[in-house]
What we know:
This protein has strands spanning 3-7, 10-13, 18-25, 29-39, 46-51, 57-59, 67-72, 77-82, 91-101, 107-111, 115-120. With 121 residues, the protein is mainly β.
Amino acid sequence: QVQLVESGGGLVQAGGSLRLSCAASGRRFTINDMGWYRQAPGKERELVAKITSGGSTTYEDSVKGRFTISRDNAKNTVYLQMNSLKPEDTGVYYCNADVLYLGSGVLARRWGQGTQVTVSS
């Protein structure tokens, strides 16, 4: 099974920045789309940004111009640079990856364990 490990969350004041990382590890796989979701207390998980294997990106409207998603395919890692953070960005951030297992041909979505981002006002 491919595992996703996130890092980079924490507590930051409004207007500050954080950079999240998510690295995939395992055997004989390749990754299609990768993305970041977040879940605020009492709310459903929502898409923040996603990136295709070719580098095309999509952003949720509230983060456009503030967040940047990128990936390093050689390292199987996706990043989320978050600038001009607001209190409403607070939540648990999860990365995901659409993984193609090369041996079996199975395509599966894998999720990281989540990392807490807290933005104080």
